[in-house]
């Protein structure tokens, strides 16, 4: 049995609880929240409740810690858990800076523990099908790809917790809401080389941007567009991902990128394509993504093999967000390679100086 403990028992923790309960060989052993009210649902059961992280990490049976706290706290908690010898599942975004992401990856590596970042949308039926098509080469040469997020997060959403909409803890529409779609874009299209971007705070009273448009050059030569906003009236309209190649077009849409809208490939009849669309429509969610991740993490802890969404994957999505933010701030395109090199230097100045000699 692999024993899990959750830190941060707010909204998303519910999905972690359900996922752990649904996975054979996994057990929820402990929960921790600095706010004791958040622990009330667990009282009277066989889960041990803590208000102090250090105390929970001393729990002798705990194997994995799931970090479900505000995003700006993820780095310190991950490093702390890794030093206590616990494997880590950390909610997205894994961190708000590349230096923090590097420290998390390093702490887990040094302590010989696994690190999994929660990007559960990869497990949706439509996304699995799309990944298969990409890997089989069915698109031929890609011309371009679009990631679109047209959602509504109203002012009440930002006012419900102090951390929401702040630079230090939330990070904005790309960092908090669109990062799942960016992870999918990278997973399917490969590395991004360069980014240009505009960002604005148009309608919400928050520190971070609520509206963002960016254009991309992928390493494979294709172009890309990201549109992300939480200002769409009156509620969530669309999250979609569109890939365009010389022999294929696929659009995954719906409010949260879960239904196939277009599925046209030179090697498939239109009728067969429509059947795939229908099959996905019959079960657009499949097994919940959090459950797939916990199942995968449980196996990874047992086997020592890496989980299917690693710290490096989380850092890749984070670097795209930061490249967009910097491109907007500096008013010029940003190359991801240079961004990573600069953050590597800041993270490890002595090592970089040593290498220059
Ligand atoms: N994967 C997804 O689809 C998804 C969806 C929503 C949120 N999230 C992510 O999950 C994280 C939490 O979001 P939420 O909406 O659940 O937030 P929330 O505000 O509802 O809950 C956060 C909880 O963490 C607790 N907390 C804060 N600091 C703590 C600490 N140091 N130790 C212990 N407890 C602490 C708070 O008291 C609160 O109960 C964020 O990083 C967010 O981006 C992911």
TrEMBL record:
Source organism of the structure: Kroppenstedtia guangzhouensis
All residue ranges annotated as the GFO/IDH/MocA-like oxidoreductase domain in the record: 127-250
Protein name (database record): Oxidoreductase
Pfam families associated with the record: GFO_IDH_MocA, GFO_IDH_MocA_C3
Residue ranges of domain Gfo/Idh/MocA-like oxidoreductase N-terminal in the record: 2-118
TM helices/strands, residue ranges: none
Superkingdom, natural source: Bacteria
InterPro entries named in the record: Gfo/Idh/MocA-like_OxRdtase_N, Gfo/Idh/MocA_Oxidoreductase, GFO_IDH_MocA-like_dom, NAD(P)-bd_dom_sf
């Amino acid at each position: 049995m692999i024993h899990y403990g959750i830190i941060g028992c707010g909204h998303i923790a519910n999905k972690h609880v359900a996922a752990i309960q649904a996975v054979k060989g996994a057990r929820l052993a402990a929960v921790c929240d600095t706010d004791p009210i958040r622990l009330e649902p667990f009282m009277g059961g066989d889960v041990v409740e803590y208000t102090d992280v250090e105390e929970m990490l001393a729990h002798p049976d705990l194997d994995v810690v799931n970090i479900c706290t505000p995003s700006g706290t993820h780095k310190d908690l991950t490093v702390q858990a890794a030093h206590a010898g616990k494997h880590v599942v950390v909610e997205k975004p894994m961190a708000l800076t590349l230096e923090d992401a590097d420290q998390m990856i390093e702490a887990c590596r040094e302590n010989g523990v696994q690190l999994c970042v929660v990007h559960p949308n990869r497990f949706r039926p439509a996304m699995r099908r799309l990944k298969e098509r990409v890997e089989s080469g069915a698109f031929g040469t890609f011309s371009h790809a679009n990631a679109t997020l047209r959602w509504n997060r109203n002012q009440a959403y930002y006012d419900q917790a102090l951390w929401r909409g702040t630079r230090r803890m939330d990070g904005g529409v790309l960092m908090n809401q669109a990062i799942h779609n960016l992870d999918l874009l990278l997973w399917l299209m490969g590395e991004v080389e360069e980014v240009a971007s505009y960002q604005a705070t148009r309608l919400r009273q928050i520190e971070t941007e609520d509206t963002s448009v960016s254009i991309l050059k992928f390493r494979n030569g294709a172009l890309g567009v990201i549109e992300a906003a939480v200002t769409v009236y009156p509620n969530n309209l669309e999250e979609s991902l569109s890939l365009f190649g010389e022999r294929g077009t696929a659009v995954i849409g719906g409010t949260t990128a879960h239904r196939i809208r277009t599925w046209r490939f030179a090697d498939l009849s239109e009728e067969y394509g429509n059947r795939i669309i229908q099959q996905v429509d019959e079960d657009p969610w499949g097994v919940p993504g959090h459950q797939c991740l916990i199942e995968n993490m449980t196996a990874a802890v047992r086997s020592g093999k890496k989980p299917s969404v690693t710290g490096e994957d989380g850092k890749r999505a984070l670097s795209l967000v930061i490249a967009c933010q910097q491109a907007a701030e500096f008013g010029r395109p940003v190359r991801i390679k240079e961004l990573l090199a600069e953050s590597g230097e800041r993270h490890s100045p002595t090592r970089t100086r040593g290498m220059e000699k």
